[in-house]
Amino acid sequence: MRSFEHYIDGTFSAGTQQFESVNPATGETWALMPRAGAEDVDRTVKAAHRALSDPAWRNLTATQRGKLLYKLADLVAANAQTLAELETADTGKIIRETSAQIAYVAEYYRYYAGLADKLQGAHLPIDKPDMEVWLRREPIGVVAAIVPWNSQLFLAAVKLGPALAAGCSVVLKASEDGPAPLLAFAKLVQEAGFPPGVVNIITGFGPDCGSVLTSHPLVSRIAFTGGPETARHVMRNAANNLAHVTLELGGKSPVVVFGDADLDSTANAVVAGIFAATGQSCVAGSRLIVERRVKDQMVQKLAAKAKAIRIGDPQDRATEVGPLATARQRDHIEAVVAQSLSAGAKLVCGGARPEGFAKGFYYSPTILDCDGVNSPSAEKELFGPVLSVLSFDGEQEAIRIANDTPFGLASGVFTSNLSRAHRMVRDIHAGIVWVNTYRAVSPIVPFGGFGMSGTGREGGLESVLDYTRTKSVWLRTSDDPIPDPFVMR
Ligand code: NAD
User: Fold this and answer.
1) 3-state percent breakdown (helix, strand, coil) of the chain, nearest 5
2) Residues 25-55 pLDDT 10s
3) pTM flag (> 0.90)
4) Domain 2-249+449-473 sits in CATH 3.40.50.2000
């Protein structure tokens, strides 16, 4: 059996406790993972805090920090296949997706590497004659970065990249479900040459690891990706250290299809939106909102595609849908689909475990017609391969249904009418709108949601500034004695 270690203060260690990790494709234990408890977390945060003021890190120029990030990017690119195989083994995400995604993760580190020496302070045109005033832009401090099981290397990159570009130190907590790729990635961090303590990678569970980390008094910044319920815990914990918090949470993203769209191309985008990553994607386009006059046509096309999807071993390049990451997740999806059918939703396809995969946590690509029904599948985030179909007449109804959710992460609009596309972009309540495409990402573009989908943005310039704080410096240039001390200057 494989075993993995924490990376704390530049050293690898198995820790005092371990837990078993299960391969979702087989349901069998394949690796032992270290389990961080409160003492491990405390030691790790203290190491990160020490590293902040260690001259080995603090005295690096921004350009040198950028060079370390470029080196890390090259190492990620060179090791993408190995990391992808580990992620696939530990989470069940298909190898086609993990290998492409991790190769692209290298580009995220390159983007942040290039930004490191472009984070400028400012000289201010102060309204007082004998004063020079400038802003220093400094690293915010120790960052607690927390990620869920899906796309861990990717979700870590959008936190580590800007944090390191800005000169922070980081404690990264991998998910207890599928931590192997991040623990293996720690070797690349060490090889890239980041000084000890600057990047620490641990894993553990919510109560004894995540909770202790997010409430630690030496943590200044929390970058969290996960579910809304956990996010509430994180915010409450952050009340202890008054850390700056960003939250990237889930969604119930609408995909609005007008009858004037190219329906074949749109069907491919809808399939990508809901069945890629076996639906375990925060931006999953899980609510199809289709113009009534083309609904039957669209649903037929989608059902044909869903039935033809190749379900299989996630390590096989031919596989298109693999298992869910955990049995818990598969059981949750099964339960919500059953509730939805009882509520009156009609099963178009799927709705069961596929035959021939008794050992793994598989669930067939599923389409539910939820028109005119209060279906839980159309309201709750399932984080699985289940598409709920609703229909509309006219733009106003489309917008009303699209925005009828407390979430607001992503959305899609499919139409050949340019002015309608603009109106929809304006009126949709979501942090991302894809028009005639779906599920495209880039380090250059901010990513994040409205409402229950979180607060803050990852990616783009904004995200790097979010790992800095400014210091306003006032320097008096006059040699005259300070005048009246009882009047504010
Ligand atoms: P989760 O909220 O259960 O867990 C996320 C992380 O939080 C894990 O590392 C977990 O150990 C940790 N955690 C648990 N309790 C904690 C606590 N009390 N304090 C601090 N940390 C704690 O999420 P999940 O079920 O692993 O992942 C699925 C969720 O993540 C979905 O809702 C999905 O939409 C969301 N997600 C969002 C994005 C995005 O960028 N918006 C991306 C991927 C996933």
Assistant:
1) 40, 20, 35
2) 999 999 999 999 999 999 999 999 999 999 9
3) yes
4) no
